[in-house]
Design brief:
3 copies of one chain form a homotrimer. The first copy, chain A, is α/β, with parallel strands linked by helices. Chain A has 2 domains: 295 residues, Glycosidases (TIM Barrel, Alpha-Beta Barrel), CATH 3.20.20; 200 residues, Class I glutamine amidotransferase (GATase) domain (Rossmann fold), CATH 3.40.50. In chain A, 32% of the residues lie in helices and 21% in strands. Chain A is built from 17 helices and 26 strands. In chain A, strands 10, 11, 12, 13, 14, 15, 16, 17, 18, 19 and 20 form an 11-stranded mixed β-sheet that branches. In chain A, a hairpin with an 8-residue loop joins β17 and β18. Chains in contact: A-B, A-C, B-C. At the A-B interface, α2 and α4 of A face α8 and β14 of B.
Chain lengths: 659, 659, 659
């Protein structure tokens, strides 16, 4: 069965008599799949053990009659009022010690055993009920795990779980004391039971504790998901299990979270959440998120929530311009989505999210958004069957690590330094050059890439050093940056030599001093031209490396900003600062030229080229992110299969190219 | 007896031997009335049941000997330390769950039964004591009700009262669930006891709950006042009861609060509170507040606290320039104050408000402020007797609704959209055109106005739709705006048609799309000229309406920004955006010209004209809000009864005109 | 023994086998003294009564073998986890009622009796152990007392102590009520037990309570230090006791804190804490802090923590430029430090402060910072022996009062008015003129100064008035400013006359009005030229004074901004506003010329001249705070004993001049 497009639907928000109308409109629009029930616990179990699946059965049945399959969410992000009334200890506690109450969602502590027992009972019942329903093709566990849990939970259950997690990790309290360096500020613990979660203190917590807290927190949520996966897998043999991720959301290691899922899904909102700066995310940010989500399992994926109107809670985001909704949906397909489910069919008339708009308006009458997406589906859906499962085959990889991200969240160094943004600065230069990029984690094989960029490798292991060395010696080109090799995995500084530690030989450099660019930036000369850099400067002494860019100011003027060292068949670059966009563009140009990495083609500024590559064909998407008409000059062998050569504002074209 | 001017006085802050001096200075200044005792509970009842009114009796007596009457405040904003020590559960709890302690004022929960019992005992005793005192002419209940209570109170008493209020309103929990839409996020309640007050959750509360919380909160305070009114009315047959409002303060529905008062009073501080931006409120903002306060009961009113020096707690506001204090006092009279009581006689030498200056300085020596106000009183007081009770007779009304305000506080849509500010944008254009304006609430008769402006009629009922239709059909001119007819009174979106719902026919338009102007503004063409608008654009399809202004940019360029539809003998205008000041001025010019509404006259920029109209005469005030001399050109029949034709900086003139 | 330079060292953070290497490097660098153990409680007492001083004995012994003495800190800023586990009531409570937990430092309530008992036991044991160790020369009590305690502690123990402190001060509750003015807002107390600490209320606390809270808080910490001093003095007869202050840190009255110390120490960080604006403190701010610290006991002092690299916790401060570390160390010596201890030997590899850099880098290899400081020590240390104990002999004093500072913290008047900044504005003009300045408190003898500047003498006593009058009558020149004589010591406004109260006669002025310069500044004419002033204008009526500067704008244009009155042999100046830097420079020029105060000499802009004066010689330091080379033109009799005539960027010179 072909499952290309769908919508998120809440039949329980609408009168029973409307359901048939909706199903008919969905069918006419070309939808194949509907996600339901991920927030409907109180509707499915109005009181303890009193299951009420009839309404959902009926909705599934009506949708099926109109040709649509169903994906069900487990509603565990919204424990009902009757559960909270019976067991208020389920409510989460924030780092200031305040219980967060009922009235929104995510009012739960994910380690709480009473809450787990309720989940076990309910999810078992739900899985039993739907395991043989031929119209239910799969499950989504919970919803956007981690959402709203940034500062949660510090309850006594979570504290005990954290202490137990630490006991498992460190074996003995002496080992923990030694590795955390609790000798500092007299923080030595006699037993694991003394260790706090990082609630408010008179000042700051130990950075090793903070990193372990973030690891624990991620592990807890992964385990919370696994707890539900286990229930469903055991009962529902033929239905897939997925979860909807949130791009670069930083609370959970998505590589871990994705591991036991059949595939991952992603929620893509181009205008961002309503409180983000508007008009929203840049096209390259959107591309980066999609490439990252594809990288979680190095597989194609679903979009489980694709923006279909203005977003909004108390504040509204910008209204997507004509063409943008279709463009953004096509972009997700171009980057690896095999199925796109729109959030949502129709905006709710009540509740917190009533201005999070859907395909229809509140009125229920199809309008501009319905027509625009219907038209896009009719053109794109047939093509999607041709390249289902196909990846882009990138020659460049960017390393992404949650632990590095967490370490910089704990210690940003410069007030504006952010790991995820730094990674995206490199991505942007590749994106602008129309070069496909994979995001990979540190466990991936590097050897299939001509170029690997690994920014801010702050926490370092001997194993990772060896992996980098092997990659370069075998002919790879590797880019490392400032703040590499500073610490071990305990978030403790290495003290056995100059920076960048064990990678100094590979890079051919030593770093004995550095300058955090507070209240200043820096000049850099590269290939005879002047650029700026910011946030940080390593003051680099080359041992065997060659300098390819130099600082031009202050007491370290003339010293290297970028170096390259040769090792075996490859090269190892070191970038000691954060280049501005212009320097980054020229540096990436140099790297890709030397590495023999080719662009997908030429396109006007603001037009993105993306590839899905099957064994026989390339499908090249051209996506016009501008509000002007753009002219394409496709290569001679590009056969256009969608759109016009002249791209409308926010227009889409697809070309099929024989390999 | 003539009661035109007065002062707020705290004899308990000063030595007994000073009282006579103060009374003499007051008499010489021309004061008629003194307010006392509204914060003096511990002085009047130093311990339970131990009443001590002697000092106050004496102060009243001394003032009476100097020709002054007394208004007494009930001191319920300041329960004494001995009450809090005995019953700390009276202390209020904020939305973060934190008890707010003793040490300031308003440290009370207004639903708390123990606190109520103390009030009942004390207010009864006080009323009994003063009911027959011929020098006590009236009562002020509490002080600035709602002040400091924005985030209060979430204690268990308030939670119970809220649940009870909901039970009374909705009858059954099923009804509440249906009307609030608790199906969203699984928030269905089994019983009223499960419903929280809107304390911190992991994210946001249901907007229907939030609106009911605001209604409950307002009702609670209104009922708190009524509780005291009932005690006093029962005992004190010949004394009036009032309360001092705070202009556009938003916590309490002042139309409700004013209902059972003999008249309302208002506290007018032109420089604003010390933490407001300085130099303070604009003249039109001051005018709007006064017109609004007059509209609470469509009656003249008292100023119970009129600024008489720099304001200040920890920070000081700007020092009023010579002339400004008299000007501001005259402005309150011009807009409908029959009595003006200055806050305060002399600044306290201790306590939080010691820099909230009074007529005298700390030294107690009369100075610039005393002289200036004494001079103004001597001129204005005699005139005030002529037009006591007279209103301006406006031809334009602006609708003001607390429920609309609350709904926009809950969901501002645009980060800078504010209901009360939006209303004042329309007011400003009328003010600048020297046109008197009434503020009315939705229960008022519209038919007496030529023009009714009703911005942001977000929450809509069938009854209100009919009222608007009737008004227009009978010949009225009505202005409605963006976000009209979006929701029902449960704060739930209407889903049975396009916006603006049932008013679409009257207006002759349909709205199928809109654009929240995030990170942009919009061009508008009106009468061939270009203007800007901001915050929001409805994308309007006229059905029968005529377009009178159009957007000039983006994908909806050329569509209507302002329309007018004819219905019966009248016209209904729709404004789909927030016009800038220039467009507003021109639009109001058009509206008043068409409606045949006349200006009070011409005056230089910065000079305000205001009218008090008796059955035989108009009294036209000319108020110079600038620091320059201004020339007036009064009409031939204007007889000047106060001031010079050449207005001094911050000067005042009054003209008497036979009707 | 000569103790000139040292370092702060944490042997417990490093392997035993490294200690010898460190000691050798220290010796080679020229260090004489090492501070240790001030955060090492859990290492010295891993469980109750189980003392473990062996490691520290060994470290002291190794250092001694390399010629270094030891100063020991009492580790009471870091009660170990086992104490907190047993007695969690030791944890402090903030003003929002939140307990601040274990995990940082300063997690303690300084009034708590259980904590005091632990301290008594441990400090006694430590003192007993080290009393006869010839290599231990002294003690530091705790560390940076008050640090992190700004909002602490509001626990029940602190509340009781506060109430007891009040009972001692006021004798009776009636007296407190009268003096605090609790008649305001009905805050009268029946007993001391009702009085709160200033935790959150619905609005603001009584300013008299707030001032007493700050006094209590300071007294508590002074008494907390005394508690430890008493233990050690009793046991350790031959060792000194000091404490490390933090410049203008405002929580504790350092005049009180310093009283029973042998000498005070100071922690000097020129780039400021990492979250301060960078590049850091200005040279004159650094000079002011040093002069202030010298003024605490009118004695030379130690620097116990002298910056030796970039500062940093989560964020890093700027990297000191080559030369700056040596310059800043020399500046501390120039202003009166007899010993300079660098913080710290080597940055920790773990814990919150791992980016608070030291003399060495993490690698432990000596580098730029080691070399630079070693070189400076080799030149400066010999000279230091010549002028040990010598002071600068200033002719100008600036009065500094904690109580004035606290009163302005409670009521800043203008949002940007700050007592300590105001004081430094006067200091800066003197600093720029190369004139040595003493900071003194109100108990000091004024008569030895030609000029005394006493800004913002807000709280006033009859005794202080007399002191000022006597000083002037005997020939002194006194500068008083706006907001002088406003209140009594209870933080209650004086009401018995015009401002500036009892000093009006001396100054020859009366003030009946004033203007807080909100949203404006003011023009001032002085000696025929135009300047600006800000924040506040007193509107001054001279009685006998002569006007020397006048306002040029607004309704008080032409009235005095600065006056001078003659009394006896001296003059009393009054400055009614905050002059800008230009006016301040010219005003100080006038004052010093008239007073016959001489500059140390001429130097290029950015070069600071400072004097240490012995009975026979002046030692003039020339400190180049710029990054350019600067030429000096020393007087003929200046014999250069350090540096070159041409000062390198951040360079130092010292001249010896026979008196």
């Amino acid at each position: 069965m072909k499952i290309r497009f769908g919508a998120d639907y809440y039949p329980e928000h609408w009168p029973r008599e409307r359901w048939e109308t909706d199903a008919k409109l969905m069918e006419e629009m070309g939808l194949d799949v509907i996600r339901m029930a991920e927030f409907s616990w109180s509707k499915m179990e109005p009181s303890l053990g009193n299951y009420n699946f009839g309404w959902l059965d009926e909705a599934i049945e009506i949708l099926a009659r109109h040709g649509m399959k169903t994906v069900l969410g487990t509603p565990t992000a919204t424990p009902p009022a009757w559960i909270i009334e019976q067991s208020p200890e389920i409510l989460p506690v924030d780092s200031k010690g305040r219980t967060r109450g009922f009235g929104g969602r995510h009012h739960d502590c994910q380690s709480n055993p009473v809450y787990r027992a309720h989940i076990h009972r309910f999810v078992t019942a739900m899985a039993q009920h739907y395991k043989d329903n031929p119209n239910v093709i799969g499950w989504q566990i919970d919803n956007e795990l981690g959402n709203s849990h940034n500062d949660l939970c510090h309850c006594s259950s979570c504290r005990s779980h954290f202490q137990e997690w630490l006991a498992n990790k460190y074996g003995s309290i002496d080992n923990l004391n030694a590795r955390w360096g609790t000798a500092f500020w007299s923080q030595t613990y006699d037993k694991f039971e003394q260790i706090p979660t990082p609630m408010i203190t008179p000042n700051s917590h130990n950075p090793s504790l903070l990193l372990d807290w973030k690891r624990f927190h991620s592990d807890l949520i992964v385990e919370f998901q696994q707890f539900q996966i286990d229930i469903i897998r055991d009962i529902c043999k033929d239905q897939f299990i997925t979860h909807n991720l949130m791009g670069f959301f930083g609370l959970i290691d998505y590589f871990d979270l994705g591991k036991n899922l059949d595939f991952v899904s992603h929620d893509q909102y181009a205008t961002g959440y309503f409180d983000n700066p508007q008009p929203g995310k840049s096209p390259q940010r959107l591309g980066a998120e999609l490439d990252f989500v594809r990288g979680v399992k190095q597989q194609t994926f679903w979009i489980m929530e694709q923006q279909s109107g203005p977003t909004g809670w108390e504040i509204l985001g910008r209204t997507p311009r004509p063409g943008q909704l279709a463009l953004w949906a096509a972009q997700t397909v171009a980057h690896g989505a095999d199925t796109v489910v729109f959030f949502r069919w129709r905006p709710c008339s009540f509740g917190t999210e009533e201005y999070w708009h859907g395909i229809l308006h509140h009125s229920g009458v199809p309008g501009r958004r319905y027509d625009e997406l219907k038209n896009m589906i009719s053109q794109l859906a047939p093509l999607m069957d041709e390249f289902k499962g196909a990846l882009p085959e990138s020659e460049v990889a960017i390393l992404y690590s949650y632990e590095q991200n967490w370490a910089f969240e704990i210690q940003p160094h410069h007030p504006k330094l952010n790991y995820t943004h730094q990674v995206q600065k490199y991505y942007k230069a590749l994106y602008d050059a129309q070069i496909p990029v994979d995001f990979i984690n540190h466990k991936e094989d590097l050897s299939k890439y001509k170029l690997v960029i690994a920014p801010l490798q702050f926490l370092m292991t001997r194993k990772m050093e060896d992996k980098f060395k092997d990659y370069v010696k075998q002919g790879g080109r590797l880019v490392l940056t400032m703040r590499t090799g500073v610490k071990n995995m305990d978030n403790v500084c290495m003290t056995d030599g100059h920076l960048p530690g064990g990678l100094g030989d590979l890079l051919g450099i030593e770093i004995k001093d550095y300058d955090c660019l507070r209240a200043m930036d820096m000049g850099v000369e590269f290939e005879g031209k002047a650029y700026r850099s910011e946030k940080w400067c390593d003051i680099v002494s080359p041992t065997t490396a060659r300098t390819i860019a130099s600082y031009t100011e202050d007491f370290y003027a003339g010293t290297p900003a970028i170096t390259v060292g040769k090792a075996g068949k490859g090269e190892a670059y070191y970038v000691g600062t954060e280049p501005d966009d212009n320097l980054m563009r020229e540096f990436i140009k140099l790297l890709t030229r030397i590495s023999g990495i080719s662009s997908l083609g030429k396109a006007p500024e603001g037009v993105e080229l993306v590839r899905r590559r099957t064994s026989t064909f390339d499908y090249i998407f051209a996506l016009n992110h501008t509000e002007e008409i753009q002219e394409l000059e496709p290569a001679a062998d590009w056969q256009q299969v969608l759109g016009e050569k002249e791209l409308a504002p926010y227009g889409i074209a697809v070309f099929k190219v024989k390999r």
